[in-house]
Amino acid sequence: MDSSPHNSRYELSINEIYTALVTGTRPVFFQETEGDFIWGIGTLFLAQWGGKQFAITAKHVIDNQGVNPQHLRIFIPGYKVALPLVGASTSNHPNHECREEVEDIFVWQIDKEPDFGGEELSWHTWRMKEFWMPANILKTGQQIFAVGYPDVDNRYDYEAMKLETPPLIAIGKLSSDQLGNDVYTIDCDDFTCDLNGISGGPVFARFDGYFFYVGMIVRAGRIAQKIHFVDAIYVTLLLDQIEKNS
After folding, report:
1. pTM for this one?
2. Considering only the top CATH level, what class is 14-245?
């Protein structure tokens, strides 16, 4: 199922923000074989692009954990099965001055019509082509929203063999500082938890009462109270490339 939230022009409550932005944002989990304990740190975002569906995260989420990307498991609330994956790709921008950041994108393609023995599944993906904007149109001081699943204490329930992962919604303003071209910074309010694990999470801004995807988290710092994200245009360029080559 595909959905993107429409919002009024009035000030949003935290519940409205949660409903709009956490939908489609999932923790990164890995599992080598069915029945094994699931584990992992990081955040991914489900998006639809040109009739295909993708899971998007930061490439360093994969690299830092030394994991086989094929072991990703996307569990949908209410179901015990994981979405099947049919391919994976990453970015390549060798001449960009911020190559480390703009290439720090990894996507899996999801089987949009999986066969689960007659059981029908429904899940939410962001209608990316309709609800994305390049970050270069943002204004300094503009309100920005970021979502991720931090690696908090007690997230493992060993008796139930599952992970409890409450999401973090970070609200801040676009900083005048940048890590470099196409890598932007959010000055955030105080955090009450470590930010390890939110890499790969989506970043949004509001225009005319609508939320738009504007980037992907690549770095964050609790002490500095900053989140750094790469422009969404590099995510869409990769999705365009996959669509063209398929």
Report:
1. 0.88
2. mainly beta
